[in-house]
Every structure is written in structure tokens, then in C-alpha cells.
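I'll show one example:
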Amino acid sequence: MGVVQAETFLAGCGQGDLNHPTGSPRSPGATDMKQGWKGEMLSPRIGPVSRFAIIGFVIMMAAAAVLGWQVALRVEQDVLAEAITDVRETVSDRLTRRLAPTDFNRPLVGERYDTFHAFVQESVLVERVVRVKIWNKEGRVIYSDNREMVGRVYPVEGELREALAGEIAAEVTDLAREENADDRGIDNRLIEVYLPIRLGSPDEVVGAYEAYFRWAPVAARIDDLSRLFLISLGAGSLFLYLVGLLMLNGAARTITRLLHQAEHRAEELDAVYAALRETHLSTLEILAAAVEARDPYTHGHSQRVRDYSLALAGQLGLADEATIETIRRAAMLHDVGKIGVADSILKKPGKLEKWEYAEMQRHPEIGWHMLCRTSFLKDELDLVRYHHERYDGLGYPSGITGEHMPLGARILAVADAFDAMTSDRPYRRALSAAVAREELVKNAGTQFCPKVVTAMLDVIDAEFGVGTGAAGEMESSRTRLS
């Protein structure tokens, strides 16, 4: 079977996202979704119905506050517009006919004041209008129903300035200005309206009316309307809220039932995935065994490399299950690329020709290309690819050096070399464990990683009972190398 045939065979063994970092079989998508759903919909802290209740209540209260404020503002605007109309009809129309241009040159005093004031009291100071002032353009009060204010001069600013410029102005005032000091005994707040006065020419403003209306009746009206509005809004919102809550409760029960069903399906999918993954891995290991079966001299090689590699991992203190599982699988599959090497080269009893050796050196790359199609073996790829690299950079296929080699690849390199040396080959007999051990010591720091060789010496000593101690021999080896 050639490499193209082998890759085609593997492609048909089953593809998909079968990777999981811990090496434990499970379906990544199904279980993640299952856990996400349970955390979101079945959380004991705040479920969707409770969230709906809280959010719905907050939204209702916010809406009621905003709409209540809008109602109060609209009523206030309507009242100000109504007050302006009253000033036009009650104050301006009645008083303008009784004013002369000369009245704006000086305050009304004496008999002129008394006559004008009597008319104001009779026809203007009705139930709503509580105070009237007349200003000239210099900011002087030429008339007020409060006689003490007549003749006083105040800064021309705010609404008074607007009225003297020909504009109508109105506001609800809290009587904080200096000119309102004598008005504070009437009420805490008043409606204040300014209206320009034009005598003769419609384009010439000679002064301004200032009229005050009581605010308390308006405030009571606003309170009544706001109360009625809030009651209506609350009743309607409560009805909609309860209907929505009932609907959401039903939907939540349906969703919960569906989630439990989905969880069950996810567990079934996990089981199917685990079986598929194990089948896929078994297929690859069978394929690796088939490669070894082509050459009786390499029978059991992958299993022995696996055992040595796992022993090395333990000796080096590697405890992470995912890392150990990666090393185990890589050891079983490290020579799978030999399926793309001709039998005449694999079984040749003598020394390989240069071109034959170059062909043999292709097997790590062939294995990498075969396995890269299987996503759950992505961590094993570099170990398979680099297990024939050397610590000094003279290995193949890439010539990487030292710590640039993955630790798993350095472990496989030592385990693979030791088993190769202690196994029969067509061109030589197996070396003893003691001789193979000495070869490892001799090549530590050049072909092999010294740290891994040190660990391997302890493994060999424990397994075969040879050697004089890893630390002493490695120190002796370093002395010879230096």
C-alpha cells in the first residue's frame, strides 16, 4: 500500500472535529451546548421567569415615571398658554384702553393711581389673577396693586426683557427674584405672565404687563390627572404583565422540557462520539500493526516504544493525563508512515543505499500527512514528525535542535532508539541492554536529550538490572564529551 493509498484509506475512516484537549472521549459541541443551556435556563439563581418579573417591574416603574412627568409637563404648558390668553383678554384688553403714553414717563400717583387701581380691583383682580404690575422700558414699576412697589426700579432681565422686546413670556416662578420679595406672602409658587404693551403704533413697545396667577389649583389639577393616569397605566400594565408572565411560564416549561430532551440527546451523542473515536483510533493502531507485520523483525516495536515512553514520562515527572495520553498515542503511531516505504527497503538485510536511506527518512513526514487529517490527533502530529530529530540538529526531517524539539518527541527518540538497538534486525543481532545503555550515554547531548537519557538509564536499571546509576554515568559521559 503506497502513501497515497494509505491517506485515502485514512480519509475514509471517519473525519470531523474529534479533538478534545484532555484526551477523554466526548462530543465537544453537544456537551458544551448542554452545559450552556443548563446554566442559562435551569440556573437555581435567577431563572428567565424571575428575570422577566424583575425587568418587567423596573420597566413599568420607569415608564410610569417618565409618562407621569410628561403628563405634568403637558398640563403645565397648557396652563401657561391659558394664562397668557387670560392676560390678553382680562388684563391687556381692559387696561390698555385706560393708559396713555405719558403714563409710562413716571409712576402713577395720587388720584391717577387711585382711579386706575379701583378699575384694576373691579375688573382684573378676579379669582385667578392675584397681582398686576405695569413696567416702563427703564425697568420701573409705574403701577402695582401693591402700592409700595410703585416707583421701584429693577434690572431689565429674563422674561421682562423678552416682553419689552415684544415677546410674550410665561413661567412658573418660586418667587426667588428681588422684585418678588413682596409677593411671597401670596403663595409659595405663582404663574407669572409678561405681555408687551403697545399704544398707538403696533410696532412700538412702551412697557409690559406682569400678571400673577395662583399655582396651587393647577398643582392640585396636575396631581389629580397624574394620579388618574398612573392608576390607569398601572392597571393596564399589571394586566399585560400578568398575561406575559403566564405566557412566559408556559414557554419556560416547554423550553425546560426541550432542554432535558436535548441533554439526553447530547449524552447519547457523547456515547456515539466516544465509540466513533475509539473505533477511529483502533483503526489507526491496526494500520500501524499492519506496517509492523510486513517485517517480522519489528513485531511489537510500537507497543514496546509505548511502554518505554510511558515509563520515561513517569520518570520525568509528567503527571498531566492529556500529555501522557498524547505520548501513548504518538508512540503507537510513530512509524505509521512506513506504510509508504517499499518492502524492498524495509526488509533489506544489508546496508541501505543512499537513495534507499533517503526514502526511509521520509516516513515521519508521510506519517504526519496521514495523521493530520484526524483532528483529535493534532497534539500527536509533532511527536510523530520529529521523533527522528537529533539534539544537535543533525536529524531529520527538519533538523531542529535541543529544546526546540517537543519533549514528547525527545522521549520517543530515546525509547525508539533503545528498542531498535535491543531488537534483532535483518542485518545484525540485538544488542544487550547494557550495551544499548552505554550507547545512550555516549550519545547524550549529541543525538539524544541528556535529561531524557538520564531518565532512561533509571528505567533500564529498574527493568533490566544493569548499570551503576544514571547520575554517575551521565557525569562521566559529560566529562568524556568535554
